[in-house]
Structures are given as C-alpha cells and as structure tokens.
Design a protein that fits this description.
TGT-like_sf; metal ion binding; 16 helices; alpha/beta; Queuine tRNA-ribosyltransferase catalytic subunit 1; three-stranded antiparallel β-sheet; zinc; about 425 residues; about 40% helix; TIM Barrel; eight-stranded parallel β-sheet
Amino acid sequence: MQFEIIAKCSTTRARVSRMKLAHGITMLPTFMPVATQAALKGLTPQQTEELGLTLILNNTYHLNLRPGTKVLEAAGGAHRFQGWRRNLLTDSGGFQMVSLSSFTKVTEEGVLFASPFTGEPTMLTPEESISIQHSIGADIVMQLDDVVSSLTTGPRVEEAMWRSVRWLDRCIAAHEASGRTDKQNLFAIVQGGLNHELRDKCLEEMIKRKDRIPGYAIGGLSGGEEKDIFWRIIAQCTEKLPVDRPRYSMGIGFAEDLLVCVALGVDMADCVFPTRTARFGVALTFNGPLNLKLSRHAKNFDPIDPTCPCPTCSSGVSRAFLHHIVTHETAAAHAVTQHNVVFQARLMGRARDAILKDSFPQYLRTFFQDYFGDVGYPRWCVDALRSVGVDLLSGTEDVQMVEGDGAKWEYSEA
C-alpha cells in the first residue's frame, strides 16, 4: 500500500488522501458499498465499476460458507470469481459474532460458528480468518476481533478488547508468515465499546504495532448506541490514531454520519444502508431520503434528482414510474440501487473537492441546510462539528435542533 495525504482542511480534521493498492488507486475519504456474497445486490460488477467505484467490501464469513475457499482459489481469487477489477476489502468474520450470536461461541482459540445452513460447527481462529482472506485475495484484509454489541457493558467489553489485541498479534504473525504483505494489507480494529478508558488502552496497544499495520479501523459502533456517544468515540480514536495511516469507521452509512466522521478525521466507511434501503423503495438525495412507495410520488414525473449523473436519473426515469413498480418489480430495486450508490459517491466526492479547495466547513453548512433545514439539525451533529471548529448555527436564523439521532426519513403521507 502507498498512502499519501494530499490536502488537509484548515478547520476540521478532514483530509484527502491517495491510497494505492494492488488493483488501483482509491481516493479518500470514500464510502465502500457492501457486496456481502461477492455481489452488490442489484448491480453487476461491470455496472458497479461504471458507476465510478474503486473499492467495495466482501464478507469473509459468508464467502467461506459459500462458495468456499477451494472454489475461490480455483477461480484465482474473489476478483476473478466476481469479475471485479478494482480494489476489494474483506471483513474478518468478527461482526457475525453479533449478527449471528445465536450460532456462535467465543473462546480464546477463536469463534465457534454453527452453519446457519447445515448446523455444522466451524471454528474460525485468527489464523483461519487470515487464511480465508488470503484465498479471497482482497487488497485490504481485517484482523479477527472479538466483537460485542455496542450496548454491552461490564467485564465482557474489557475481555473483548484485550482479546482483540491478542488476536491482532496472531493475525499479524499469520499474515507475515504467508509472504503476502506486499499485495494484501492488514488493518487492525480498535475495540473497547463505549468506554473511553478501554478505547485508550486498545489504541495504545495497537499503535505499538504500527510498523506492522498499514491501516486502522474503528469497530464496535453503529449498534444502536446514542449518537452523542458515537461521535465522541470516533473523535477519541481519530485524534490518537497515526496520521500516516488510513482510518476506517465500520458500519457507517447515513449521509450525516459520513460527513461528521469525515470532519472528525475518518477516511473510509462502509454500510449496507444505500443498497438495502433501495430494495425498500427509498432513494437518497441531498434534500433527504424519498420513500417512493408513498402516493405523493405517484404523479411526480421528475427524476429522483435532476442533477444526478446516475443511469436512473440521467435517462429520465421518473419518480412516478418508480412508485408504480417499486413494490413488485425487481427493476425498481436495480434502478434505485444505482442511484443510491452514486449518491454516496457524490456525497464523498463533494467532500473531497471541498477539502481540496479548503471550503469543507461551507460544504457542511450547505449540506445540513439543504438536508435538515426543514426539520431541524440533529443536536449531536451540531455538537460534533463544533468540536472541530464548525458551527452549523452561525449566521443562520430560525434553525431548530432536534434531540436523538435526528435521522431524516419519509415515513408517511403526513
């Protein structure tokens, strides 16, 4: 990996970086769509590349179950298997400790999974996780970490944090012994739950291993915790992580979350949100999400966003047509997925452009005014951005603030 910082915001911690991997260059900050089983739901790999994406995510746990490492190795890795020519990141399988907790048991050796298909037990050790990711051939591979829900408290959080440190050492040893460090880059994952002291301890330990770690991820968040706590953990981690390593916040997908995290110093993020929400008929825009199932769109013959260059919008597909087919035609999911993936790319692309021009604070003010001006700014966003020198309320009149996560949604016809 070659990682070079191109520009820094003079106000916030945001930066633009150039990350060169085995399958090309990815400019940061960026959002990574999730192709769980080597397929981005609703898009072919060729379409995904044509939309301008240079980095996507595959899921190690699921690819190990199906098609399995033998098939992947015979195909020459996941790039060839799925026809994807750009960069690829794989998670380690650790998140499935939470998402499939009823099928798992965690020990010091690793994670014992019961296959959700056959019930057959499988032990995933740090070494095995790295081996599977080697078979997949991802450009960025993640350590196996001991993942607990972000809402977990008590001794289990500290246990998981220290185990993640020990498992990192095992992952490093397995990765270095493979001779693949020149093509595949191992990222560490900072754990510690919502406990600032535990996060500091984990950061200290993982930074000690910096010379053997090309990048760092912030894990254990986006699991239902309060947003006011979420952003403070992100800020704590980005403040202390090495400036010459990419920083990846796992599981972040809402537009406001992404921009706040970029302002706090995050370079990379991933989430199923844009593709999953597309399958439920929700299109993402710079004025907020549109629930195309609602009848208010039945006679609207405008595209989702007239300024959007995605194939759906640029070809003139109307909201009315999408409303007509959204609940019963797979073409709707395909069309909205194309749009949502491009929206996330535009959101981050505009952030990069603004950082390069040193106008990122103004971009934030414009985005929040357009997105939340009619419903009120989430207080946590205001507080988070104030912590890095951006006051969203400065120079505005009659702006309301809302408590809680403040996520904007078109729930009903009201």
